[in-house]
Amino acid sequence: MIERERTVVVLAGGLSHEREVSLRSGRRLAAALRASGADVREWDVDGSLVAQLRNDPPDAVAIALHGGEGENGSVQAVLELLDVPFVGTSAQACRAAWDKPTAKAELAGAGLDTPDWVALPHATFRALGAQAVLDAMVDRLGLPLMVKPDQGGSALGAQVVTARSELPAAMVSCLAYSDTVLAERFVRGTEVGVTVVDDGAGLRALPPVEIDAGGGVYDYTARYTPGAVSFHCPARLDATTLARLEETALAAHQLLGLRDVSRTDAVVDLDGRIQVLEVNVSPGITETSLLPLSVRAAGMELGELYSALVERAIARRRFT
Asked: What superkingdom heads the lineage (predicted)?
């Protein structure tokens, strides 16, 4: 429970492609914090944010923003400038995690498995010839490929390419969300999400969630359509693999310098190797999101977890 009736601002919405998802996360988080005794205000993120924070500063901010400024460190940097405590990762670490190629290189350099990839800006395709570059991409990485924006979440602009002829259309779709395309080998296996939290009881991984898309792809529609995907928590994997998943998520969280809460997305491939896809600094909290499933499986309530995170955020300012 909240130590006393804290004033907590939940930031949601904003102007990213994931605005509607963020609003859903924000509403659920606000309700959970209210149930734990907080005085919660829900603020959309726009040009009035700095003035609101200066004129009516809360005890802490809980960020339910997805995409754009909410995950790339911009909002976090403003909160740091204003000395407002907030739940989540620092601005500097957000920037590194937000850029998928940078994060993948960091994780691979530390010995974690991540699908082989290449990241190329739109300008490269224009300057060197799109077809020649696409052919080289397939020759190097093979098929099928996962093509996605180098930044962003909710699988927006991401799709699986199984034939060379599908690549041009996939690139156009991807470039609608980012100026740089990340193409990586598509990994078949069991897709999972592992939430990591540090709420005062020690840094730990919550039970991994298995994502069963019924033979389809866990894309934007599947993520946010109730009933489109089956979830299993804990994942239907042996104890040794579950333990390795948790160890991998903890390692990714620490390597990227993350704080409070994160979610690592991975695939346990057909050979049993754990392939890290990406790491999210602002996991979704909607009715179809993975984090609430993990929290429940761990025997906790969402409000209980975030109340503890709010208290930690406030305590951090006391000692800085």
From this structure: Bacteria
Rounded distance between C-alpha atoms, residue 265 and residue 146, angstroms: 14
Tokens of 129: 């010839």
With contact defined as beta carbons under 8 Å apart, do 280 and 262 qualify? yes
Residues 80 and 177 in one domain: no
Q: What angle do CA 120, 122, 119 make, to 5 degrees?
A: 15
Residues 103 and 246 in one domain: yes
The answer to whether 278 is a known ligand-binding residue is yes
Q: Could you tell me if 204 and 293 lie in one domain?
A: yes
Interval 268-305: pLDDT, tens: 999 999 999 999 999 999 998 999 999 999 999 999 99
What does the angle CA 177 – CA 111 – CA 275 come to, to the nearest 5 degrees?
A: 50
| 265 assigned ligand-binding residue | yes
* Residue 131, C-beta contacts closer than 8 angstroms, at least 6 positions apart: none
User: Is residue 200 helix, strand or coil?
Assistant: coil
2 part of a folded domain: no
The pLDDT tens digits for 113-156 are 999 999 999 999 889 999 999 999 999 999 999 999 988 776 77
130: closest CA among 178, 177, 164, 176? 164
| Amino acid identity, position 135 | D
Q: How many CB atoms lie within 10 A of CB 11?
A: 26
216 and 103 part of one domain: yes
Whether 177 shows a pLDDT value over 70: the answer reads: yes
- Among 185, 217, 237, the domain-final residue is 185
According to DSSP H, which parts of 229-289 are helical?
239-255
Active site residues: 18, 154, 289
Report yes or no on 1 lying in a domain: no
Domain count, the chain: 3
Q: Report the pLDDT value the prediction gives residue 225, as an integer from 0 to 100.
A: 75
With residue 249 as reference, give the H or E element that holds it: helix 239-255
CB-neighbour burial class of residue 218 (10 A; exposed 0-12, middle 13-18, buried 19+): middle
243 and 106 share one domain:
yes
Tell me which residue range forms the domain holding 13: 7-88+305-318
Pair 314, 283 in one domain = no
